[in-house]
Amino acid sequence: MDGLAIRNKRLLVVEDNPETRQWICATLRSAFPDVEFVATGTFAEARALLFGPKGTRQAFDVALLDIVLPDGSGIDLIRRINTELRETTPVVITIYDDDATLFEALAAGAMGYILKGVKTANLIEQLRRIDSDEPPISPQIARRMLNFFKVALPAQKAGPAFLEANLTNREVEVLSLLGKGLTATEIAGILGMSQNTCATHIKAIYRKLNVSSRAEAAIEADRRGLV
Question: CB neighbours of 138 closer than 8 A, spacing ≥ 6?
Fold first, then answer.
């Protein structure tokens, strides 16, 4: 790949939340008016655009990829991009800031890791790092990477039970409130987040704990001493 310059490039935006997808696209239009981009909300559509039959697939210089999609994983797309599309730079843009997701994405070949939920100016700043041939990595993620290598492995294994599932601090808070029987709407109000963000955290909790209902999540919260 010839650097990570974003000017005069073609981008693929893969984000299942319509509001977030609209925000990313509006940011690209205003900050990078000479950039062409295509936006989609599913794994299947992204796969078809990137790897479809000859004549239907499209070439992209940069792919901004969410991790959790309704029909697949952005990390699987990153792995395939890294193997088959060396001209495409995969960059994660997600809400997940836990070690498991972060390092799985980097191991798959992600060349950047941007957290959602930031101000538009912060997103622009991260994308402009691509112009400077620098990997776009949110400051929180950079700190997490440094802390990860500062912590000894025995200390990691000695943590609380909920760390075994690699839950983030915010996910632990959400799980604790699920364990107390609160609804997603009530949790969003208590923690001062949008319902969409709360739903994303709950989806991540279900995935990490391998559960499929609030009742099962409540049992796991109790088992981990969060209730």
Answer: 113, 114, 115, 118, 122, 126
> Would you say how long the chain is, in residues?
227
Cα(217)–Cα(48) distance, integer angstroms: 35
pTM metric for this prediction:
0.62
Domain boundaries, the chain: 10-146, 158-223
Nearest-Å Rg of the Cα atoms of the chain is 18
Q: Which two tokens stand for residue 13?
A: 């935006």
Supply the pLDDT for residue 155: 41
**What single-letter amino acid sits at 62?**
V
User: Scanning the structure block, which residue is given the tokens 């650097």?
Assistant: 3
Answer for the pair 141, 97: CB distance below 8 angstroms, yes or no. yes
Higher pLDDT, 126 or 49: 49
> Rounded to whole angstroms, how far apart are CA atoms 180 and 68?
26
CATH top-level class of 158-223? mainly alpha
Per residue in 14-42, pLDDT (tens digit) is 999 999 999 999 999 998 888 899 999 99
* Topology of the domain comprising 10-146: Rossmann fold (3.40.50)
Bridge partners for 10 per DSSP: 36
